[in-house]
Write a structure and sequence with these properties.
8-stranded antiparallel beta sheet, 36% strand, Immunoglobulin-like
């Protein structure tokens, strides 16, 4: 079996940076080795405290001043803000445009002199690969899936009651599911296989810094199967008549990994093997402290190298943090190394979960080690 099936991760995931210029319709072009037409775009202002902007091709981009964006830091319905959004998904990037806010119609995506980051994933160009009609325990849903990169976007309308399921289209059970109500204001709920010994019961909130807690109604106390995700009788997952979107990932060798580790409480922290050099890394203390989620990537780095000190939190509007502590993480050719004694990433005896996507695999599909940057 080949070490990896994805020699160029930029064909399925890329990060792009830009500085705003007040254009109300601006093309943001990727810079990776491959062209990437994104199906999920997640934008955050870096030197401004404004909401995250999340748009996907299943819900659709918008040419009007009111888009279909959600914000990871908010429990609000769609649209969660009107300060700019994605106008179109292009062959190698996307266009952003102004929103309907009179005071700051561009602050979320392209305000003059504000710096931005966007993380992007490719799926299937907005076309559903699987659809399911309501029948018995199965809820009607539309699934856009890419089994090569292990990612799918699911949209559905809740029916109420427990014992219901939606398809995910990945071919094997996802390790991570992040879901949000579109027409009902509720928490972003997170299933992560490495969360606890009972991840189907002990869930996390993406818009909150809480440690894991028992939310049995979210996933109906049932882990995802090779075909379905279980939903409980809860407005966070399945309120009758409310619309939802869910993002599901399964690990792909050499491209993505979703796991956990235990902190040791010193500056020589854990070394986590992923099998690739990370392009994006998300870490959360799930047991031990109520710490914010944090994101690192291979573009927002100080001095172009390790330690990577630039972190931003999905659950807050905070600016790009660029300080020596407590965010020191080394991005290595085969994983990442924690370089700080802090509860955010390395509290003594605390448990952490992570999600990681690759810049390049440790070994190519032909068995050739890749060069670490």
């Amino acid at each position: 079996m080949a070490y990896t099936t994805i020699d160029d991760p930029s064909a399925y995931f890329q990060t792009v940076l830009w500085t705003g210029d007040d254009q109300t319709d601006r093309a943001i072009t990727n810079t990776g080795n491959s062209d990437l037409q994104p199906d999920l775009v997640w934008i955050k202002s870096r030197n401004d405290t404004y909401d995250h902007v999340v748009v996907d091709s299943s819900r659709g981009a918008s040419t009007s001043t009111t888009g279909k964006q959600l914000s990871t830091n908010l429990a609000d319905t769609e649209p969660s803000n009107t300060n700019g959004h994605v106008k179109s998904f292009n062959s190698d990037g996307f266009n952003v445009r102004s929103g309907s806010s009179g005071g700051n119609p561009l602050v979320g995506v392209n305000k003059n002199n504000i710096t931005y980051v966007a993380w992007q994933w490719k799926v299937n160009g907005g076309t559903a690969t699987t659809s399911q009609s309501e029948s018995g325990s199965n809820i009607a849903c539309s699934v856009q899936a890419n089994t090569t990169s292990g990612f799918s976007i699911i949209t559905y309308t809740g029916t109420g009651g427990s014992g219901h399921t939606i398809l995910h289209g990945l071919g094997s059970a996802p390790q991570v599911v992040i879901a949000k109500g579109r027409s009902v204001g509720n928490h972003w709920r997170v299933y992560h296989k490495a969360n606890t010994s009972q991840p189907e019961t002990d869930s996390l909130k993406f818009n909150d810094n809480d440690a894991t807690a028992d939310h049995s109604g979210w996933w109906d106390d049932t882990a995802p199967s090779s075909t379905e995700i279980a939903l409980g009788n809860d407005d966070n997952t399945n309120e009758d008549g409310s619309t939802y979107v869910a993002y599901a990932w399964k690990a792909i060798k050499g491209f993505s990994k979703f796991g956990g580790y235990k902190g040791n409480g010193n500056n020589d922290g854990p070394l986590i093997y992923t099998g690739f050099k990370p392009a994006m890394l998300i870490i959360k203390c799930n047991v031990g402290h109520g710490e914010s989620w944090h994101i690192w990537d291979n573009k927002r780095v100080l001095l172009g190298g390790n330690p990577n000190q630039a972190a931003v939190s999905p659950n807050t509007t905070g600016q790009d943090t660029q300080s020596s502590t407590p965010y020191n993480i080394d991005f290595l050719s085969n994983g990442f190394k924690i370089r700080e004694d802090h509860d955010i990433t390395n509290g003594d005896g605390d448990n952490y979960i992570y999600m990681a996507w690759a810049e390049n695999p440790f070994v190519s599909s032909e068995g050739i080690p890749t060069t670490a940057a």
